[in-house]
Amino acid sequence: MQRTRWQTLVVLAVLVGLGSAVVLRLLDAQGLAPVPVPALSGAGLAVLAVVLLVLGRSVRRMVSGEESRMTALGAARVAMLAKASALGGAALTGYFGAQLATALEHVAAPLPRAQAWASGGAVLACLLLVGAGLVVEWWCRLPPDDDDDDPDELVGDLS
User: What InterPro entries does the annotation carry (predicted)?
Assistant: First the structure.
């Protein structure tokens, strides 16, 4: 598995943000209310980021040879969760960013002001999730192998 590149995350956030902005503008042009952003949506994403960091710390201990209850399969799952969190967090950053931009256009009214606060908090939580995903991906790297390039040593003893 390759580490997630920051350029991929930026492109994903921009594309999802632009697509979401177009849909939200179409809804606004037709007089329909935008999809509301729950006030606690940012809290759920922040909790996921903290859980990911805790799991990643166990993987980091395992990789460095310290005592850990993490298994190799568990470490692989944490690495995949980290990658999914980085990609999902980037996509949600674009979506909530578009929601924030839409709410800021009508910020004088009470409901759009509340939506702006909820969207802004969700954007910050998404950025936290992306950061946690990238850090845990870094922690899940395996150390480089020794100078042993003997093919028999890489396969192991099969007899």
Answer: DUF3180
